[in-house]
Amino acid sequence: MPLVLALLLTQAPASQATALAKARRWNELLVEFEAQRPSSLSKKDRATIAKAFTAACEATEGDDPSLAQATGERAVALEPTAAALACAGAAAVHNRQPAAAEELLRRGLTSFPKDGRFPLELARLFYMEQDDAQALALVARIGSKSPQFAEATELKAKLVRRGGMRADAAPAGDAAPRRGGGPALTGGGVTGLGYESSVDGEGRRVRQNAFFRFRYFSGQRDFGQRAEYEGQVQESLEEARRGARRVLGVSREGALDVILYSREEFSLHFGGTWAAMIAGFYGDNAIRMNDSATLSDKTQRTLVHEYVHAVVDELAGFQRGAVPIWLNEGLAEYVEHEYAGEDGPAPQYVDALASRAQAGKLPSLAAMRSGALIAQANPVLAYAYAHLAVRLMVQRSSVPAVLKFIEALGRGAPFEKTFEQIVGKELSAFDEELRQSLGKH
Ligand SMILES: [Zn+2]
C-alpha cells in the first residue's frame, strides 16, 4: 500500500477527501465517498468533501467528462454551490445527457442568476439540441462584464452563422429550425417555455419566459386573477410564435412584451370598434391584448399576423418607417395564410383585384409605401394586394431573402436598389408583373 493511502485511511473523512483531491486521486475519491450519505456528515464535513468533488469535476472535465459528471453530481448532492452545479452541468452537456444537464443548469440559473456560466452552458445545450431560438435568448442574458462574455459572443456568432446557412438551405415554408432528436428537455425557468414571475421597475407583476413578457396595463390587476384567460393567451401566443417560425424560419430573438388590457382600457385607448373586433394587435414594440375577446381559430390567425409584425420590427432594428407598409402587411398576411394552409387570398378578393387591374385602378406598390392599409378605401383589398405582392416576391426569391431584405432596409440600405438585387427587377417592373399575374388569374 502506498504511503499516502496508508496515511489517508487513518484520517477523518473530510481531511481524507481533501488529501485525495490534493493528490489528484479522483477515482479513489469517488470510490471512497460515493456512498457516503450527506445526512451522516456534519455541515462542515459536507462542505469540505463537496469542495474535493468539485475540484475533481473541474480537473477531469476536459478529458474525462463521465468522471467529471459523476464527481460533480456528488458535489451537488453534498452542497449545491455555483461551482458544483456549473461543472456537473457542463460535464452533462459534454456527455450528451440533456435531461440531466438541463436540470443541473436550470437549478444553477435559479439559485445564481448573475452567474454567466449557467446561461452559457444552457445555451450550448440548446445549440446542440438545434433549438437556436432558446440558445440565442440565453446568450443574450450574458452581459459584456461577465467573464463568459467572450465565449457567449463566439457561440452567438455560431448561432447566427447556422441561422443564415439554415435559412439559405431550407425551402420556403419549411425553414423552421426544429429541435433535433434526443430526449426531450424538461420545462421550467425564464429561459425556456416555462414562465417565471417577477416585479418590474414600476412595481408591476411581470410573468415571462424566453419569448414573452406579460404584464397588465393596469398595475392594480395581478396575475392569477384571471388565470384561465392568461393561460389561454400564453398558449395562443406560443402557437403564434411557432406558427410564424414554421413559415419564416425565425422568431423574435428578444422577449416580446405582451400587455393585457381590460375591455374598457382597450376601447379607451384604441376605440370601441376595435375593442369589439380584435383580440390583439402589435404596436409600439408590444402585443396588446384585449382581454374581453374570446380566443378562437380566427383570433389565432390574427395573432400569427401580429407576431410577424413583431419579428419584422426586430429584423429591421426597430427602424419604423424603413419597411414599406405593403411589405410589412403583405408578409404578415402571407405568413398568416400559409399558417392556415391557404395559398393566397380568398378567391373573391383576387377576382376583385383582377377587375381593378383591368380597369387600371390598382395603386402602385410605391404608393402603398406608407400610411396604414386600413385607411385605404378598401382595406381588405389593400391587404390582399400586399399579400399577393409578397407572395410573388417570395416566388422570385425566397422567404430568407425577403427577411434579409428587411434587415438591409433596417440598416439603411436604399430600397429600390436592394429590391432589384433581391427580386431581379425594378419595383415598377415588378408592379407590372404583379398586375399581369392578376390578369392571368
Ligand atoms: Zn398587420
Structure characteristics:
441 residues, alpha/beta, Serine Threonine Protein Phosphatase 5, Tetratricopeptide repeat, Zincin-like, 3 domains, 6 strands, elongated, binds zinc ion
Explained architecture:
With 441 residues, this protein is of the alpha/beta class. The protein has 3 domains: 167 residues, Serine Threonine Protein Phosphatase 5, Tetratricopeptide repeat (Alpha Horseshoe); 121 residues, Zincin-like (2-Layer Sandwich), CATH 3.30.2010.30; 122 residues, no CATH class. Strands 1-2-3-4-6-5 form a 6-stranded mixed β-sheet. α11 links the parallel β3 and β4. α2 packs parallel to α4, α15 crosses α17 and α18 runs antiparallel to α19. The protein is elongated, with a radius of gyration of 28 Å. It starts with a helix and ends with a helix. The relative contact order is 0.06. The site of zinc ion has 4 residues, from α14 and α15.
Task: Explain briefly what this protein structure is.
This protein is of the alpha/beta class and 441 residues long.
> What's the shape?
elongated
Q: Fill in the CATH topology of the largest domain.
A: Serine Threonine Protein Phosphatase 5, Tetratricopeptide repeat
Count of domains: 3
Task: Give, in order, the helices and strands.
Answer: HHHHHHHHHHEEEHEHHEEHHHHHHH
The major beta sheet can be summarized as: 6 strands, mixed
Just give the CATH class of the largest domain.
Mainly Alpha
Query: What separation lies between the terminal Cα atoms?
Result: 91 Å
Residue share in helices?
Answer: 55-70%
CATH architecture of the largest domain: Alpha Horseshoe
**Averaged pLDDT:** 83
The hetero compounds bound to this protein are: zinc ion
Biggest sheet strand order reads 1-2-3-4-6-5
Number of helices: 20
Instruction: Give the percentage of residues in beta strands.
Output: 5-15%
Uncertain runs: 167-189
What is the β-strand count?
A: 6
Secondary structure category: alpha/beta
Radius of gyration: 28 Å
CATH superfamily of the largest domain: Tetratricopeptide repeat domain
